[in-house]
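Task: sequence in, structure out. Protein: Thiolase family protein.
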Amino acid sequence: MREVVIVDGVRTAVGRKGGALANFRSDDLAAEVLVALIERTKINKEHVEDVILGCVTQVNEQGGNIARTAALIAGFPVSVPGVTIDRQCGSSQQAIHFGAQAIAAGDMDVVIAGGVESMTRSPMFSNMGGAKSSDQLTSKYEIVNQGVSSEKIADKWGFSREQLDNYALESHRKAIDAIEKGYFKQEILPLEIDDLNGDRRTYMVDEGPRSNTSLEALSSLKPVFQQNGKITAGNASQMSDGASAVLLMSHEKAMELGLKPKAKIIARAVVGSDPTLMLTGPIAATKRVLEIAGLSIGDMDRYEVNEAFAPVPLAWLADTGANPEKLNVNGGAIALGHPLGATGTKLMTSLLYELERISGRYGLLAICEGMGMANATIIERL
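Result:
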């Protein structure tokens, strides 16, 4: 098996639903990060053998294989194919895995993996057209909303509302701190957008983090998914718009092209988990990927575990015994947003730059997924 490296990654700043990126078509937005990745790495577009993009709500502008249309918009040769995949919130992380597997197997040398989602222009579940779950499925499993699932996780692990709100507050604090210190500047592609007044401006700061939030403000929010529940809009991830991408290569090809990769992929894992609890998959995925890599959780310098809802990373911490000081150190989706199909490569890009910033060695990324699944990836900084 050949060694697979990540040459670089790039992302847009994440926009709130209905916010800064609301006027950006998804295919145009995806094309922006594809062009930026080529410009950063200075490779020829002809070298790319596939463009694999994650996108969850494949309808309207996000339908019709957005990976292919975005590549064409970005000026890639017609010989460069594209494919769009949906593994729910981990879609672009799975894009990394599929691309890495093709390279490791020797089928390809150069792949772009990425993702895009406009939750403004293609709202979540709009691709379902009002369809309900099959009776054959619901006769076998209790199929619930993800918010109800996170309520169940909070109850099972015994997390209080105060713990969840405190976690959310910390997510905002860390994100604001990272923005003020300029930690995201290198990874974010500046975009020219029209603001609400019609004026042109450069957009390159994530919209989600709130510097004025407080425990009092968070605790005043009403539960969303069940009466007397603990999950609110404040301790759940934000609906968002954004795009991201990473450039994958065989190590040999990177050397041939004179490129200096940022990291190599050490191990990949994907698991199925309880479709009712649904969001606990990162626990099993983490254990599996560590076993594949022959490493321990203590070997990791940083971990990114997607903050779909506050109970998800808290349960992950409890069961893995991981160090909370290494988790989502620059904030997570509760503060920074969760543009579904783009989140995997967004978090991977942030992990690459964070490891570089601290001169760390190993990083772990894990994302929970709808219907009970999770991906986990371990990278080593080069």
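Residues 161-180 form the longest helix (20 residues).
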